[in-house]
Amino acid sequence: MSSMARFPKEIGDLSNLEVLGLAYNDKFVPAKIPEEFGKLKRLKTLWMADANLIGEIPDSIANLSSLESLDLWNNYLLGQIPSDINRISGLQVLDLGANYFSGDIPPNVGRLSELRTLFLDWNEFNGTFPKEIGNLSNLEVLGLASNKFVPATIPDEFGKLNIEDYVDEGC
């Protein structure tokens, strides 16, 4: 039996849970985000930064209809952002920085109309910037540093953004 802790998938049965903070726990064994977490319909904050997560974000994340903050910073997540992420219509913070995501940023990210903070920096994104991000009228912070976007140009639509902090170095 390992002395390292795991997050039990039974957490998905806590139907009244609004905040789940499992960040900065160095004793977690490498594990995927349990699909069962997608049953947390009242969850407003999912904070699993630096929690030794591996694999892809499960599609069930899009079922978190009350989610306002999704922070999965600094893990070992890979693959792509789920294309139906826009189903989380009230999402205000999306931090997927310091992982191994690749491919394109799905255009549906541009449909997250409440989004205020978007960190996608320190990944392996290698597609183009989706012009739909220019539709995010509430965006205040945008982090895209250290990716492999091609071509490394910013779409004209980004000029519509009214943001305070724009991080684009290393794109």
Attribute tags:
single chain; 171 residues; mainly beta; seven-stranded parallel beta sheet; 19% strand
User: What is the CA-based Rg, rounded?
Assistant: 16 Å
Strand order of the largest sheet: 1-2-4-6-8-10-11
Q: Strand-and-helix sequence, N→C?
A: EEEEEEEEEEE
Supply the helix-strand structural class: mainly beta
Summarize model confidence as the mean pLDDT.
Answer: 88
Molecular shape:
globular
Give the strand tally: 11
Can you summarize the main beta sheet? 7 strands, parallel
> Tally the helices: what do you get?
0
Percent strand: 15-25%
Question: Roughly what percent helix?
Answer: under 10%
Distance between the termini: 44 Å
Poorly predicted regions are: none
Please summarize what this structure is.
The chain is mainly beta. The protein contains no helices and 11 strands. It is globular.
Structure, explained:
By secondary structure, the protein is an all-beta fold. The chain contains no helices and eleven strands. Strands 1-2-4-6-8-10-11 form a seven-stranded parallel β-sheet, with no helix packed on it. A four-stranded parallel β-sheet has the order 3-5-7-9, with no helix packed on it. It is globular.
Topology:
Blueprint (H helix, E strand, L loop, with lengths): L18 E3 L23 E3 L6 E2 L13 E3 L4 E4 L13 E3 L4 E4 L13 E3 L4 E2 L15 E3 L21 E3 L4
Parallel strand pairs: 1-2, 2-4, 3-5, 4-6, 5-7, 6-8, 7-9, 8-10, 10-11
